[in-house]
């Protein structure tokens, strides 16, 4: 068995497709009416569809998981994030951990937690 995809719930599919393309370069592999598969295995699902499946409320900013990306030029990424999405909500702006890794954490447009860090070798 292998893990195939990670699914996150979003309110506006088109807005989320732009967000993940603009910041991370993810492209659409399949767009199937409220269920969009992006490169790297990220799946966006419309909140209304997901709510019907699980019959529970969606809790944005639950902080129960995060999407993790690595970026070599994290300073340039932080500038791009600020320029493209100046009202983004940060958990922490660009910082350096005690072990030397630089990271930035923020919520996407739907409250999904994202961490971008420099590569750990």
TrEMBL record:
It holds the Pfam family Glyoxalase_2. It comes from the Bacteria. It comes from Dorea ammoniilytica. Gene3D superfamilies: 2,3-Dihydroxybiphenyl 1,2-Dioxygenase, domain 1. Residues 2-119 form the VOC domain. This is VOC family protein.
């Amino acid at each position: 068995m292998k893990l195939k995809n990670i699914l996150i719930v979003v309110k506006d599919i088109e807005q989320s497709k732009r967000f993940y393309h603009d910041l991370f370069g993810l492209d659409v592999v399949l767009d199937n009416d409220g269920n969009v598969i992006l490169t790297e295995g990220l799946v966006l699902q419309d909140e209304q569809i997901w709510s019907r499946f699980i019959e529970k409320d969606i809790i944005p900013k639950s902080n129960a998981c995060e999407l993790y990306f690595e970026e070599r030029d994290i300073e340039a990424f932080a500038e791009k994030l600020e320029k493209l999405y100046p009202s983004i909500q940060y958990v922490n702006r660009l910082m350096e951990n005690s072990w030397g890794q630089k990271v930035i954490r923020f919520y996407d447009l739907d409250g999904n937690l994202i961490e971008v860090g420099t590569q750990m070798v």
